[in-house]
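Q: Hi! Curious about what Transmembrane protein 42 looks like structurally. Here's the sequence.
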Amino acid sequence: MVLRAGCVSLVFACNAVMWTFFAKALHYSSSSATATLTTTASNFISSAILGKLLFGESRALLWWVGISLVLCGLLLMHTASPGSEQQQAEKKDK
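A: Let's find out. The predicted structure is below.
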């Protein structure tokens, strides 16, 4: 019973930390999509690491391909200059 209560409280604590970091990411990010993708990628990666360390879980090749695509998208979003989208929109209007 104590172990179950500890696990439930750990779930709530992890969710509270995740929502805190997500709110801070929304505050500092220029786009909500960037903050959402960053939080999602960090959740996937931390779940994989903790699953391996705590439970000995392994991930399939398709999972690694998927998380690689998410990380590539994250890299593209963070390296793109914020003004480039506005400049492209202005060029299309002309």
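A: A fun detail: The chain has four helices and no strands.
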